[in-house]
Amino acid sequence: MYLIFGKFPIPLLERSRKGRGWFDIQTALPREELLPLPPPATFEAVFSVLMEVEGQPPPSEELLSFLKKMLVIDPAERASAHELLSHPWLTSTT
């Protein structure tokens, strides 16, 4: 997940009960002995592959923007439900 959305914020890991067990608090990366690092990927690449599997057209830029705002790792930085409800992807008529 961190390869797609970025590193976990260190304050979030420090607040987590299990953060120190799974992550190196200095680098905010998973401990390699527990989670081998897969090749890097982007959110767009992963989502496009999923859409191809389902036989759907590629995702729109508005949909990707909506999902990125919704799936931010740190709850303090994540868009609120109110903000997401006013996102153009949900409010557009086309």
Task: Please name the defining characteristics of this protein.
single chain; 94 residues; mainly alpha; 2 domains; two-stranded antiparallel ribbon; 4% strand
Structure description:
By secondary structure, the chain is mainly alpha-helical. The chain has 2 domains: 1-41, no CATH class; 43-94, no CATH class. Helices cover 48% and strands 4% of the residues. It is built from 7 helices and 2 strands. It has helices at residues 2-5, 10-15, 19-22, 43-54, 61-70, 81-85, 88-91, and strands at residues 23-24, 29-30. A two-stranded antiparallel ribbon has the order 1-2. A hairpin with a 4-residue loop joins strand 1 and strand 2. It is flat. The two termini are 31 Å apart. The mean pLDDT is 77.
Question: Briefly, what is this?
Answer:
It comes from Rhodocollybia butyracea. The chain is mostly helical and 94 residues long.
Helix content: 40-55%
Number of DSSP-assigned strands:
2
Stretches where pLDDT is under 50 for at least 5 consecutive residues are none
Question: What is the gyration radius calculated from CA atoms?
Answer: 16 Å
Mean pLDDT: 77
Order of helices and strands: HHHEEHHHH
- What characterizes the major β-sheet? 2 strands, antiparallel
Q: In percent, how much strand structure appears in the residues?
A: under 5%
> What spatial order of strands do you see in the largest sheet?
1-2
Q: What is the number of domains?
A: 2
Please give the count of helices.
Answer: 7
Shape: flat
Give the structural class. mainly alpha
Terminal-residue CA separation: 31 Å
